[in-house]
């Protein structure tokens, strides 16, 4: 289906932002990163949605909408959507134990041993779909169907920072201690939100992510 077809919606948000809803959001994001539109200051991705922040003194929203329709029409949405300059982030994880209280349940639900479950999870081709929920939290897509876990019936009141968790079709890592209803299978010491760094968050939409199992007792930096 052509990217500029009826599945595309445009919503103006004030005089300096435009939301574009389309199944081709990831492909459009890649195109805008590779070849930015003049006057567009920032592109914020969500699931099947991009919000473009633009300078209203340089760009009329009607012209921006027309440019985006033309850009979508030129895209091949049947091709895999790499989101420009994709990076790969390795996340060292200690699976199970006190840091991964739901690992045994998840492995049994998948019909695997715990070791086989961890191996399958570490081999999954994960990718950052978008960030949300709390600063630094990335919704990771790419879980095979057998590794997709139902959420807890009742969320935990506090999930420790660094918890690696599975919920529905998503995997994620909690950057800070918050309530949460996903199944916790491990923990990482990687800091995913740090205002003292030039880039407080280490990943962005389109980045690839790989979990790496750390043997018990071994430092994660090893």
UniProtKB/TrEMBL annotation:
<keyword id="KW-0378">Hydrolase</keyword>
<keyword id="KW-0067">ATP-binding</keyword>
<dbReference type="InterPro" id="IPR010016">
    <property type="entry name" value="PxpB"/>
</dbReference>
<keyword id="KW-0547">Nucleotide-binding</keyword>
<dbReference type="InterPro" id="IPR029000">
    <property type="entry name" value="Cyclophilin-like_dom_sf"/>
</dbReference>
<protein>
    <recommendedName>
        <fullName>Carboxyltransferase domain-containing protein</fullName>
    </recommendedName>
</protein>
<dbReference type="InterPro" id="IPR003833">
    <property type="entry name" value="CT_C_D"/>
</dbReference>
<dbReference type="Pfam" id="PF02682">
    <property type="entry name" value="CT_C_D"/>
</dbReference>
<feature type="domain" description="Carboxyltransferase">
    <location>
        <begin position="8"/>
        <end position="203"/>
    </location>
</feature>
């Amino acid at each position: 289906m052509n990217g500029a077809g009826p599945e595309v919606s445009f919503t103006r948000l004030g005089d300096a932002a435009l939301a574009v809803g389309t199944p081709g959001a990831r492909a459009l994001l890649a195109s805008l990163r590779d070849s930015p539109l003049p006057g567009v200051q920032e592109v914020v991705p969500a699931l099947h949605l991009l919000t473009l922040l633009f300078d209203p003194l340089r760009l009329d929203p009607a012209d921006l909408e027309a440019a985006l329709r033309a850009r979508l029409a030129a895209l091949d949405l049947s091709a895999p959507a790499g989101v420009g300059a994709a990076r790969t982030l390795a996340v060292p994880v200690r699976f199970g134990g006190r840091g991964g209280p739901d690992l045994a349940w998840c492995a049994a639900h998948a019909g695997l041993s715990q070791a086989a479950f961890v191996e399958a999870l570490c081999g999954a081709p994960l990718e950052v779909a978008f960030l949300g929920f709390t600063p630094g939290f990335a919704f990771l897509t790419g879980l095979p169907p057998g590794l997709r876990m139902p959420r807890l019936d009742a969320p935990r009141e506090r999930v420790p920072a660094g918890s690696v968790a599975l919920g529905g079709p998503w995997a994620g890592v909690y950057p800070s201690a918050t309530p949460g209803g996903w199944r916790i299978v491990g923990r990482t010491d990687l800091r995913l939100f740090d205002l003292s760094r030039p880039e407080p968050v280490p990943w962005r939409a389109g980045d690839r992510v790989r979990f790496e199992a750390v043997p018990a007792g071994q430092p994660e930096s090893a």
